[in-house]
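Hi,

I'm pasting everything inline rather than attaching a file, because the server keeps stripping attachments. The sequence lines come first, and each chain or strand is labelled.
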Amino acid sequence: MTTTTVNVGIVIVSHSPLVARGIADMVRQMVGDSVPLAWSGGNVHGELGTDATGILRAIESAWSEAGVAVFVDLGGAETNSEMAIEMLGSPRSARVSICNAPLVEGAVMAAAEASGGASLSKVVATAEELSP
Amino acid sequence: MHTEPLLIAGLIEVCRATIAANSEHLCALDRAIGDGDHGTNMQRGCEAVSAEEANLSSLPLPDAVEKIGLTLVMNIGGAAGPLYGTLLMEMGRELRAEESGGAFPIILKRAIDAVARRGRATAGDKTLLDVLYPVQDALAHRSRLSDIARRAELSANDTAPMKAMRGRAAYLGDRSIGHVDPGASSCALLTMAICRYLEENRPE
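And the predicted assembly:
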């Protein structure tokens, strides 16, 4: 990418590659190319699981100077995402947030918010409003 | 010290063999309260470490331990990856920092605290911490290796009456009670294997 992206990026992390890719498709349909978007699903062998280096690659691919919001499904997805953010290193790691929000609705709402140029904290807050 | 490469290689092999021999058992424990893959995940991690054994055992101990942690993170593929990974990566860093006379129980305590932070768990939450903390305590009290191993085994069994507060098992609430935690079990099996190996091959 040669152009500077100003909109917050979105990363989808699921234990299932199918789920991660499916949600990314839904997000893409909502907001087109206006939001940097990437997904990571499955372990290193593409089986059910999560993969810290795969998540790291997804964050780098959806990187935006405005920050990146990460959406996760279950336990290991969250811990592996934290690991990936650490591996990303500072100062970029400070601009990545894991959202405590439902995966599908959270990612779609966050992307809609991000496509309007909202800040990372606003994008995260919008998604987290969906959590009980 | 010329015994170090042998020690690293030996420990890698006993850990791999122990997990391989108990993989099905760990999966069965995980099927009861999780997603049933703890054995295969741990086996994948240990095999990845084994594949790098020649390279790892040529490194100074702190670097080898840290690299083993990173390999586990990248290959286990479940929540156990970042937890065991953090334990070893932190231990490696602490070993390096404390190289001039650091006491191992303190190094281990710091590494376990890092695992607790990573998992946002504490003792009693039905996790591998419920084995790690008692093992560290036994070590700090200079218990014999056989007693440390026994303590690990008993501590894993003690997770059965606990209610899971973290991880997939926490979704089951009270239904997690009565099952031994798979992570605590793998941790005890590894501790027992390491103690047995060190007893048979005293580094001193």
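The beta strands of chain A are 9-14, 37-41, 68-72, 96-99.

If the labels don't parse on your end, tell me and I'll reformat.
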